[in-house]
Write a structure and sequence with these properties.
With 204 residues, the chain is α+β, with helices and mostly antiparallel strands. It contains seven helices and eleven strands. The chain folds into two domains: 122 residues, Zinc/RING finger domain, C3HC4 (zinc finger) (Herpes Virus-1, 2-Layer Sandwich); 30 residues, no CATH class. It has a three-stranded antiparallel sheet with strand order 2-1-5.
């Protein structure tokens, strides 16, 4: 049985962090002229999740414009209500105005998907922003992941996890050949079948 099957798609430990969710570094863009058309004016990167303010047409990363809205709300007067100024042109909009990629027109979607990016972890993969988001989060062998075993807090490149760590982790659960009960690998030398069986029966 392949011991790596259940951990093949371990997510990148940084996925979900605001900094991670900001745009891809423009140094990763292969076709730079097209990339510049979609670059976020707040983080200067190519958005993972692009949004456009309907009233003025300026585009941003979803997470960048969301942070901008929150920051403006924290510093605005009560008179402004729920409106925010576009960081580029100062047009007023509400937090409900930005539209996401799914609502882009077909030419905009096609143009965005033509952007080609190199992998941030310097593997050989090249893809569109959406493809690269999936690759960096779930597929890249160089992405940083946590060991999946309970109580093991180590994080490392996925390829190192598979090649060196996973079968040697002290938290690896193995089964005693005599009593067939599970135990962490680190407890092999101290394992006592009789005591372990008694403990298991108490928990039933």
């Amino acid at each position: 049985m392949d011991n790596t099957t259940n951990i093949k798609f371990l997510p990148n430990v940084y996925a979900g962090d605001d900094e991670y969710e900001e745009g891809f570094d423009d140094n990763l863009v292969i076709n730079k002229e097209l990339g510049e058309c979609f670059a976020c004016p707040l983080c200067f990167g190519i958005p993972r999740n692009p949004v456009v303010i309907k009233k003025c047409g300026h585009g941003f990363c979803e997470v960048c414009i969301a942070k901008h809205v929150i920051e403006c709300a924290n510093h605005s007067s009560k008179d402004r209500g729920f409106t925010t100024k576009c960081p580029v042109c100062s047009a007023l909009f509400t937090k409900f105005d930005p539209i996401g990629y799914d609502d882009f027109n077909i030419p905009s979607k096609k143009a965005f998907n033509l952007i080609q990016l190199k992998c941030p972890y310097a593997c050989s993969y090249i893809g569109s922003p959406h493809e690269m988001d999936d690759h960096q989060t779930y597929e890249c062998p160089k992405r940083i992941v946590f060991c999946p075993y309970l109580d093991c807090k180590q994080k490392m490149a996925y390829e190192k996890l598979i090649a060196e760590h996973i079968m040697n982790c002290e938290k690896l659960i193995i089964y005693c050949e005599s009593c067939f009960l599970p135990m962490p690998k680190a407890e092999v030398s101290s394992h006592n079948c009789k005591d372990r069986l008694a403990f298991a029966l108490k928990r039933m």
